[in-house]
């Protein structure tokens, strides 16, 4: 009985344009939660360590070419192959802080011109995040941050389209942070959103499925 009584962890997803600060804030949040005694792990998609992840990584680095739909499905498969592990960790009480998830999958592929609903379809049934934090920054401001590297999607015009698709995906449950504020202020807001979410999940909020 004790096993079933144990409260679950949360699935917290960070989304935003390239250079919006997700990686920095994910690291800060995970350290903070660890200090608070929360069981927590830092995750990111794509997970470049698996075999699908290696194909994705080569594609992003422009070392391989793939059909737009094929790469879309690889990104999705890269999440599906982690689904059951994510579920068991969450149900055993671990909170996952995840840098990018299905919303990136849809926003980036739709920005290439693929049909929006077609892009959502393979994501349906994955674990729904308990909280999505969106790091809001204009594509121009993001591009100013150290400039873009050589990865495939790091181009201003493309990031503008990605931003449009993110606004279509956004719903009332998303927490939006102004990613142009000083990092310490962003960090403070992210902590508050995360702590509130973790408490709600501990109190028994059910784990849902995405877009179903
Ligand atoms: N992709 C996809 O197509 N389909 C999918 O399903 C998924 C992803 C999951 C993976 O990139 C690419 O794959 C991505 C989407 C696509 N392509 N793009 N673009 P990734 O995850 O490997 O890389 P990234 O997410 O784009 O990470 P990034 O470039 O490292 O950005 P970030 O994590 O958001 O930002 P950061 O590294 O924390 O910060 C960037 C810089 O800004 C850094 O110098 C910071 O010190 C600075 N910074 C951060 N916050 C601030 C504030 N508040 N003020 C000033 N400066 C700041």
UniProtKB/TrEMBL annotation:
Domain of life of the organism encoding this protein: Eukaryota
GO biological process terms, semicolon-separated: dTDP biosynthetic process; dTTP biosynthetic process; dUDP biosynthetic process
Listed pathway(s): Pyrimidine metabolism; dTTP biosynthesis
Keyword vocabulary terms for this entry: ATP-binding, Kinase, Nucleotide biosynthesis, Nucleotide-binding, Transferase
GO cellular component, as recorded: cytosol; mitochondrion; nucleus
Enzyme Commission number(s): 2.7.4.9
Molecular function terms from GO: ATP binding; dTMP kinase activity; nucleoside diphosphate kinase activity
Domain Thymidylate kinase-like: 14-190
Enzyme class, UniProt record, top EC level: transferase
Family: Belongs to the thymidylate kinase family.
Protein name per the record: Thymidylate kinase
Source organism: Canna indica
Phylogenetic placement of the source organism: Eukaryota, Viridiplantae, Streptophyta, Embryophyta, Tracheophyta
